Amino acid sequence: MVSADPQIWIQALLTIAATSFVFRDNIVFKVAQYTFIGVAAGHYIVMGVKNIINYGWVHLAGGAYIYVVVFILGIMLYARFSKEYYWLYRYPIAFMVGNGIGISIRAAIHSDFIKNIAATASPLVATAPMDTINNIIIFVGCITALSHFIFTYEGIHKGTLGFVPKVGRWMMLMAFGASFGNTVMTRFGMYQGRILFLLRDWLQVV
């Protein structure tokens, strides 16, 4: 029995409209696309105003006058639309870019260096056999992959040690393939969720 909830019907029709792009670019898909963009833009505007009130104005009204600086920088962003005061726009952008770079560098160092070093430095022999195999693969993969980027010593790519960077190259290719496969499976998982929604919540056949 098909659901009688109008909200579920709207979601189902928009899902089918978005999926119609598989066949070709059509007007039905464009309606779903423009609807999604409009709703997302409205949602971001509402959430932006709500964040300004909750994380800015509430603290400023409570006596935290340091937030005056934040509001001034936010207002300076609109100087971008003025030819005369365009230069003011660069200061809040500089703060935003610097803050973003700082957070990104910290996260990259923690995830790409510290965790990798900790995983490589862990004991090769673990309590479980599969953990031992994983530790050996991580250790060999890290060392051989790093050797692939050593260009100051010519012998690392030739002679008796020439197989080491080749192993590292294959390790990197397997890592890239696994990352790509994970991305594809994530997309399939999202689409599978929509199919289950159509069958379970809309058509109610599952």
Description:
Helix 5 packs across helix 6 (163-202). The chain is extended. It has a domain at 122-195. It starts with 5 loop residues before the first helix and ends with a helix. The longest helix is centred in the C-terminal third of the chain and has 40 residues, at 163-202. The chain is built from six helices and no strands. It is an all-alpha fold. 73% of the residues lie in helices and 0% in strands.
Task: Work out the helix count.
Answer: 6
Shape: extended
**Percent of residues in helices:** over 70%
Helix- and strand-based class? Answer: mainly alpha
Order of helices and strands: HHHHHH
- State the end-to-end CA separation: 11 Å
Sheet of most strands: none
Average residue-wise pLDDT: 90
List low-confidence stretches: none
Number of strands: 0
Q: Give the C-alpha Rg.
A: 27 Å
Please write out the topology.
Layout: H1 6-19, H2 27-61, H3 67-76, H4 90-121, H5 129-147, H6 163-202
Helix pairs in contact: 1-2, 1-6, 2-3, 4-5, 5-6
Brief summary of the model shown:
The protein has 206 residues and is mainly alpha-helical.
Features:
single chain, extended, 206 residues, mainly alpha
